[in-house]
């Protein structure tokens, strides 16, 4: 689970380059203009390892799937449709 060094940045206006039907938003980004005029870009990457116990059925499944494949009209997700657990 997240440690003490994790900051809550949910108030920022995050975006994703994933399509509207994507179910695995594992990276998002936000940009802001600094007072100096420079632009700061933050990229957030999902830490799935923090929520999926080692050697669990989900961990074993993901070990064989390792990536989501985007094939134009259909996506082949690395996680089964039942993830995350209800």
Topology, element by element:
Blueprint: E1 27-33, E2 39-45, H1 57-65, E3 69-71, E4 74-76
Antiparallel strand pairs: 1-2, 3-4
Q: Identify low-pLDDT runs.
A: none
| Strand arrangement in the largest pleated sheet | 1-2
Distance between the termini: 18 Å
β-strand number: 4
| Helix-residue proportion | 10-25%
By secondary-structure content and strand pairing, the structural class works out as alpha+beta
Mean pLDDT: 78
User: Number of helix segments?
Assistant: 1
Largest sheet: 2 strands, antiparallel
Could you say which overall geometry the principal axes of the C-alpha atoms support?
flat
Radius of gyration equals 16 Å
Strand content: 15-25%
Q: What is the N-to-C order of secondary-structure elements (H for helix, E for strand)?
A: EEHEE
Can you tell me about this structure?
This protein is an alpha+beta fold and 86 residues long. A two-stranded antiparallel ribbon has the order 1-2. The relative contact order is 0.16. The protein is 10% helix and 23% strand. It is flat, with a radius of gyration of 16 Å.
Give a quick summary of the entry.
The chain has one helix and four strands; from the N terminus they run E-E-H-E-E. By secondary structure, it is of the alpha+beta class.
Comma- or semicolon-separated keywords:
4 strands, 10% helix, alpha+beta, two-stranded antiparallel sheet, 1 helix, 23% strand, 86 residues
